[in-house]
From TrEMBL, chain A:
The chain crosses the membrane at residues 12-30, 50-68, 83-111, 123-149. InterPro entries: DUF1468. This is Tripartite tricarboxylate transporter TctB family protein. Keywords: Membrane, Transmembrane, Transmembrane helix. It comes from Bosea spartocytisi. It comes from the Bacteria. It holds the Pfam family TctB. Residues 16-150 form the DUF1468 domain. The keyword Transmembrane applies.
TrEMBL record, chain B:
The keyword Transmembrane applies. The chain crosses the membrane at residues 20-49, 61-82, 109-135, 147-163, 170-188, 316-337, 357-382, 394-427, 470-488. Residues 20-438 form the DUF112 domain. It comes from Bosea spartocytisi. Keywords: Membrane, Transmembrane, Transmembrane helix. InterPro entries: DUF112_TM (IPR002823). It comes from the Bacteria. This is Tripartite tricarboxylate transporter permease.
Length: 159, 499
């Protein structure tokens, strides 16, 4: 398996992971260098970040080595549309909760989008199922567990 | 004797009607969620953690124990009837179990797995009850340096035993430790890696990371390669019950599986994979009908299932006595403890004996409930397996977001869930194990605290780690475990893939 990849040059995913690890390491190191509180004896709060940054740097460099040898396992082609549906649903969820749209609507959309991403073609039906599911969860949490999930105008009707 | 008294006292706590009810709900929910394909016990516990939020600590921990055992039992059901092990610990079960189910002996396979889990759980919990107080006495003498060394051992073994490549395991672990740095430093109050975002001051929630990586990541992953055919459920034909012959062939594997599972589970090396596969290969060798192996030998289900359950009780030994989680499930259980401000360890036994012994007693009760509940309800669990995949994963994502919102209803938390989910997807795609990241997040800050405490005592002299015999030995073991995988590639056979 090594021969095959060697002829194609470096393994791109491994290179990218290596670069990302180095960036994270630099970020942690920079953050530690900006810290102002120190400890009088023993080690302060900056020691561990430097150790972790060093570890990540080593791992990042090791990924470069791997990139030029066997590389990372080759995955099958991914279905990008499916990923976009699920990601879209989750991003709507974040926006909906952030803007005060409430739990039930957010859940209805997430449910419908995820089911769509998994290959179902009945967006409206799934949204309705998600709506009922979301409402049921909201009410169970509110009435039984006395924990109020994010409430929008719709949820106010039930409180 | 003292142990027996404590245990009896534990039973008086766990047998209160309300506690029994919590245990029953836990077992029921745990099985229901654990039986869903693709969901292992770790994810089951993480998804159901928010449900226990508003209960009192004792009640919720008891419910937890039920969820844990229920989740494991549900996982075996999936392994046998779908040939889709939800976690690595039931890989061995799936080998023979699915063959038995195909041969129309799904009922006896499920029965031997349930009764084997019961026997193993019972013996292992007795082991836990007697080993824990003894270990607590040892642990009281541990200094911060010893704890630090112990955590290093856990780091190394967890990242080396999960997944095929130590490099990818260590990368996952270090990202987890890096995530653990985020927030206010507990010893000095210094804010680290928060970048001015106030929501990050409290650090990253373990449940958010676990649910993101396991649940959302799995949904992304399954959706991305959807072309595969739907899984086929093997219907249960014939009697549910084991014949006399089945019993005769099952009891010894149960006991041997327990003997493998409990000690290995109790070591800070993590995982039920090694004992389940050890048990599988042992039964294969000892079996009187070796040609049945590969076609559905009941020993191949009885042994690994017992080993699986025994090792689950085993992982509770380091968790309760040292506060050391050695598996992803244990890490999330620890998060559950911490949600009530409880820190497992020697002190917990002294300060909250009711709670600890109540929990141990409820493990016995959860075991009994599982057997009573699961054999009659098997039809219901099978129906759960038949939920169409789009609804199943849509439901999982809904539960994941519900859990996150219940813990902390901020958009920042949800954004983290989303990001962790995507990271989890990429890690699955490129075969990085995700469990070390969870363990890194929870153990990283603990290891740092212990190290800094040790260095404060030694006035900054790092030699203190090597001057104490226990910590020196443990660090030596860690170094060996780190080098061994590179030295002996032949051990690959026992390398595990995870949840």
């Amino acid at each position: 398996m090594t021969n095959e990849t060697r002829t194609q040059g470096a393994d791109k995913p491994a290179l990218i992971v290596g670069v990302l690890l180095l960036i994270v390491a630099a970020l942690i190191g920079y953050d530690a260098s900006q810290q102002t509180i120190t400890s009088n004896y023993g080690v302060g709060p900056t020691a561990m970040p430097y150790v972790v940054a060093a570890g990540l740097t080593i791992l990042g460099l090791a990924h470069f080595v791997v990139a030029f040898r066997e590389g990372l396992p080759k995955p099958d082609a991914a279905d990008g549309t499916a990923l976009l549906w699920i990601a879209g649903g989750l991003i709507f969820l974040i926006a909906c909760i952030g803007l005060g749209g409430g739990f039930v609507i957010a859940i209805a959309v997430v449910f419908a989008c995820t089911a769509r991403g998994m290959g179902r073609r009945a967006l409206a039906v799934d949204a309705a199922i998600g709506f009922v599911l979301g409402l049921a969860i909201f009410l169970v949490f509110a009435k039984v567990l006395t924990l109020i999930l994010p409430a929008g105008p719709l949820e106010q009707l039930f409180l | 004797m003292e142990t027996l008294l404590s245990l009896l006292h534990g039973f008086t706590v766990a047998l209160e009607p309300s506690k029994l009810l919590f245990c029953l709900i836990g077992v029921f929910l745990g099985t229901a969620v654990g039986v869903l394909p693709g969901i292992g016990p770790a994810l089951t516990v993480a998804l159901l953690l928010p449900v226990t939020f508003k209960l009192d600590p004792a009640g919720s921990l008891i419910m937890f124990a039920g969820i844990y055992y229920g989740g494991m039992y549900g996982g075996s059901t999936t392994a046998i009837l779908l040939n889709a092990p939800g976690e690595s610990a039931s890989l061995a079960t799936a080998l023979e179990g699915s063959k038995m189910a195909k041969a129309g002996r799904g009922g006896p396979a499920l029965a031997t797995s349930a009764i084997g889990s019961f026997v193993a759980g019972l013996i292992a919990t007795i082991g836990l009850a007697f080993l824990a107080p003894w270990l607590v006495e040892v642990a009281v003498k541990f200094g911060p340096w010893d704890y630090f060394a112990l955590m290093i051992v856990a780091f190394v073994t967890v990242s080396a035993t999960f997944g095929d490549s130590p490099l990818r395991g260590l990368t996952s672990l270090f990202i987890g430790i890096a995530l653990g740095l985020i927030g206010i430093d507990k010893l000095t109050g210094q804010a680290r890696l928060t970048f001015g975002v106030p929501e990050l001051l409290n650090g990253v929630e373990v449940t958010t990371l676990a649910v993101g990586l396991f649940a959302v990541g799995e949904a992304f992953y399954v959706a991305s390669k959807r072309s595969h055919a739907p899984e086929e459920i093997i219907p249960i034909k014939g009697s549910l019950w084991m014949t006399k012959e089945d019993w005769k062939r099952s009891w010894a594997p149960w006991l041997r599986g327990t003997a493998f599972g409990f000690p290995i589970g109790a070591l800070p090396a993590g995982g039920a994979e090694v004992p389940t596969f050890l048990s599988y290969s042992t039964e294969k060798r000892l079996c009187k009908y070796p040609d049945e192996f590969g076609k559905g030998a009941i020993e191949g289900v009885a042994g690994p299932e017992a080993a699986n359950n025994a090792s689950a009780a085993g992982t509770l030994v380091p968790l309760l006595t040292l506060g050391l989680p050695t598996s992803a499930t244990a890490a999330i259980m620890l998060a559950g403890f911490q949600q009530y401000g409880l820190n497992p360890g020697p002190l917990l036994f002294a300060e909250k004996p009711d709670l600890v012994w109540g929990l141990i007693a409820s493990l016995f009760i959860a075991n009994v409930m599982l057997v009573i509940l699961n054999l009659p309800l098997i039809g219901l669990w099978v129906r759960l397996l038949a939920i169409p995949q789009p609804w199943l994963y849509a439901g999982i994502v809904v539960f994941a977001t519900m859990g996150t919102l219940a813990v902390n209803g901020s958009p920042v938390e949800l954004a983290m869930l989303f990001i962790f989910g995507f990271i989890g997807y990429l890690m699955r795609r490129y075969d990085y194990p995700v469990a070390p990241m969870v363990v890194g997040l929870i153990l990283g800050p603990m290891a740092e605290q212990q190290l800094r405490r040790a260095l404060q005592i030694s006035l900054g002299d790092p030699m203190i780690l090597l001057e104490n015999p226990i910590s020196a030995t443990l660090l030596g073991i860690a170094a060996l475990a780190l080098i061994a995988p590179f030295a002996m590639k032949g051990l690959n056979r026992f390398k595990a893939s995870e949840d």
